[in-house]
Amino acid sequence: MYRFYFNLPKNDQNAGTVFLPTKKHTMLPIVISCYACVAHWAKRLDEDLRDAVIKNNMGYVTMELPGDKTDPRETTCIRWENNLYDMLEWVKIKKFAHPNKIGLFAQGLPAVAADNLKHKIDTAAFSILNIPGHTADFTASIPTLYLQGTGEKIELLTTKKAPLVEVTRRENPENKSAELTFQTVDDYLYKASAQAAAEIVAWLNKLW
Fold first, then answer.
1. How far apart are CA 179 and CA 129, in angstroms?
2. Does residue 71 register a pLDDT over 60?
3. Assigned CATH for 2-207
4. Hey, where are the domains in the chain?
């Protein structure tokens, strides 16, 4: 895996990292993972998804969103929407990225910002959103994959490999969107992160 670090050139100058299968890869589908105040249980899915994406010859880009938990929710989401737009514009002109195959992955409040952005024209090609308690919006103009747990308390893994859990599926073939609910695991899918990553990659592969 090849990686390099960056800061966006304008506005909040967000920091991030680009991960590619190799340095020479070009015109790849890209998943942009945006995060803020990441707890270790949310980070687990982010890392498993990164590894799964790279193994499937796609690129993975992380971006840090500014602010902290004391900032007002509404103004924070607006600021993050602008950050995400800046990020998409930056990635689209890079040689490693296919300009029509760039999308967002986010969890929690960053996912709310990404969810708002997906209704705007000329932004992401797809969205992967984990918003606890959020009902899937199948009217989105772009393919969107919604991920849900069942709100169970987070339990740390006692083994390296978690057992597979049942997944309830709702799909909208018209815009290639879907909602996956992972049964008996927490909202951030800590105990089903590898399984969720595999489901995400399978969904992405169907888009192309």
1. 9
2. yes
3. 3.40.50.1820
4. 2-207
Residue carrying the six token digits 């932004």? 123
Q: E strands along the chain, which residues?
A: 2-7, 15-20, 28-35, 59-64, 97-107, 126-130, 144-148, 167-172, 177-182
Enter the tokens of residue 10. Answer: 């304008």
CB 118, CB 110: distance < 8 Å: no
Query: Would you give the DSSP letter of residue 49?
Result: H
Q: CA 15 to CA 168: how far, in whole Å?
A: 36
Asked if residues 82 and 67 have their Cβ atoms less than 8 Å apart, the reply is: no
What the block records as the tokens of 112 is 């709310």
Convert the pLDDT of each residue in 122-157 to its tens digit: 689 999 999 888 878 788 789 999 999 998 777 766
Structure tokens belonging to residue 17: 């990292």
C-alpha span between 126 and 176 (Å, rounded): 10
How many C-alpha atoms does 128 have within 13 Å on its Cβ side? Answer: 23
Determine contact, residues 12/84, Cβ cutoff 8 Å: no
